[in-house]
Design goal:
This protein is about 20% helix and about 30% strand. It is an alpha/beta fold and about 170 residues long. Strand 2 and strand 3 form a beta hairpin.
Length: about 170
C-alpha cells in the first residue's frame, strides 16, 4: 500500500485525536461516483475492508448513520426493522451534508455536525482493520473497527445484501 501524505485536520481527525485513537492516513484521487471500489483499487486494499458511511433517514426524517462494507448493499427493510422504525431510506444529497457537516463523497461518521444514531454491519467488527472516510473526498483513515462501538456507540445490525460474486 502506498504511503500517504498528511492531510490537514478535519472534524473527524480532531475527534479521533481528542480521544487518543490511533489511525493511519490514506489518500487517493477522488473520482465522482467511484465509491469504495475505486478507493480500494487505488490503495490496493480489499473493498470489503473499506467501510462506507451512509446518511439515512427514517419515516420522521430523523437522520441515521449506517456503516457498511464497501462491497455490500444495505437492506433498508431489514435496517428499519432492526432499528425499530417503519422505514429507512437514503437522505437526499442536498440534505445529508446538513446532518453530517461533510460533503457527499467525504462523509465520515466521526465529528458529525449532528449526533445521530449509528448502525454498523456486525461483520465489519470482525475485520482486523477498516478504512473509513476521514472527512474529505479522497481521504481514508485506517482504524480498528472496535472504535466504531467505543467512540460512536454504534449499534450492530445484520442488514448486508452481499454484492460480491460467489
Amino acid at each position: 500500500m502506498a504511503a500517504s501524505k498528511h492531510v490537514s485536520e478535519t472534524p473527524a481527525t480532531q475527534m479521533l485525536k481528542k480521544h487518543k485513537v490511533a489511525y493511519t492516513e490514506h489518500t487517493y484521487d477522488y473520482i465522482e461516483h467511484g465509491g469504495t471500489a475505486e478507493a480500494a483499487r487505488q490503495l490496493g486494499i480489499d473493498s470489503h475492508a473499506v467501510v462506507k458511511t451512509l446518511i439515512l433517514e427514517d419515516e420522521h426524517a430523523k437522520p441515521h448513520v449506517m456503516l457498511m462494507h464497501g462491497d455490500c448493499e444495505v437492506s433498508m427493510k431489514n435496517l428499519a426493522r432492526q432499528a425499530s422504525v417503519k422505514k429507512m431510506q437514503p437522505c437526499q444529497a442536498a440534505v445529508a451534508p446538513r446532518h453530517s457537516g461533510y460533503q457527499i463523497g467525504g462523509t465520515s461518521p466521526f465529528g458529525t455536525r449532528k449526533r445521530m444514531p449509528v448502525w454498523v454491519e456486525q461483520s465489519v467488527l470482525d475485520l482486523p482493520q477498516i478504512y473509513i472516510n476521514g472527512g474529505r473526498r479522497g481521504y481514508l483513515l485506517g482504524i480498528e473497527p472496535q472504535v466504531l462501538v467505543t467512540l460512536l456507540q454504534a449499534n450492530c445490525v445484520n442488514v448486508a445484501n452481499d454484492g460480491r460474486a460467489a
